[in-house]
Amino acid sequence: MLPDLAAGCSLADSCPAEALARFKALHPEHYVVSYINCSAAVKALSDVICTSSNAKAVVEAVPDGRPILFAPDRNLGAWLQSQTDREMLLWQGTCVVHETFSERKLVRLKMDHPEAHVIAHPECEPSILRHADHIGSTSSLLKYTQDSAVKSFIVGTEAGIIHQMEKASPDKQFLPLPPEAGCACNNCPYMKLNTIEKLYLCMRDLEPRIELNEDLRIRALEPIERMLEI
C-alpha cells in the first residue's frame, strides 16, 4: 500500500525497465548491480541489489574480472568506483534532490560557518562530494552527527533527516544545503505527498494497493535475497 500513488521517485523514473533491458542486451557479460531505489521490473533485470549502506560491500563481492553495470544512480556509481577501483558502466540516472545542490552556495555556507562539517549522501554530484567531511547513507550521516564533537553541520541530503538529527542532538546546528535555484530547502516533492492524513486513511482502509504479478515478484526478490547473503 502507498498513501499517495503519485508519490513516485525521480531516480526510479530515470531508469525505465525497457530501456535498461535494451542496454543490458548490448552488454551481456556485465553483472548488473542496482540501487534499491528502482522499480520492481528493474530489480528483476538485476543480478544483485544494494542500499547506500551496503553498496561498497556488494560491489566488492562481485567476482574479480566481471565487468559491472551499475544502475540507476550515476553519482552513487561514480562514488563507488572511487571507493572500490572497480570499473563500471553507469546508468545516467539521478535523484531530483541530490542533483540540484549548489556548489556555489555550499562554498558560501562554508565561509559563513567555517566550523561546520559538510556531510553528504553519495547520490550528490561529485562537485558536492569533494567538499564533504563525511559521505554516507542517511543512517551513517545521522550516526556521524551524534558521534562527532563538532557542533555544526551542513547537510547534503533530503531535509527530512534533519528532524531526526535535531532530535538526537538538540545542542547542535544543522544547515540544509540549498539547491542552485529556488528556496533554501532540499525537500523531495514525491516523499512530501505522503502526508499524515493520507497515511491514516491508508492504514484505515488498506487502500490504495500496489499489486505485482507473482512472476515479477519472484524475479525481483531474487537479487534482493542475493544482497542479504552478502
Main pleated sheet:
4 strands, parallel
Number of domains: 2
What's the CATH architecture name of the largest domain? 3-Layer(aba) Sandwich
Give the CA-based shape: globular
What strand order characterises the main sheet? Answer: 2-1-3-4
**N-to-C span:** 29 Å
Fraction of residues in helix:
40-55%
What is the number of helices?
A: 11
| Strand tally | 8
Overall structural class, as computed from helix and strand content, comes to alpha/beta
Question: What is the multimeric organization of the chains shown?
Answer: single chain
- Detail the poorly predicted runs: none
Please describe the structure with a list of short key phrases separated by commas or semicolons:
single chain; 230 residues; alpha/beta; Rossmann fold; 4-stranded parallel beta sheet; 42% helix; globular
Describe the structure.
The chain has 230 residues and is an alpha/beta fold. It folds into 2 domains: 106 residues, Rossmann fold (3-Layer(aba) Sandwich), CATH 3.40.50.10800; 79 residues, Rossmann fold (3-Layer(aba) Sandwich). It has a 4-stranded parallel beta sheet. Strands 6-5-7-8 form a 4-stranded parallel beta sheet, with helices on both faces. α8 packs parallel to α9. The protein is globular and about 50 Å long. The two termini are 29 Å apart. The model has no long low-confidence stretch (mean pLDDT 95).
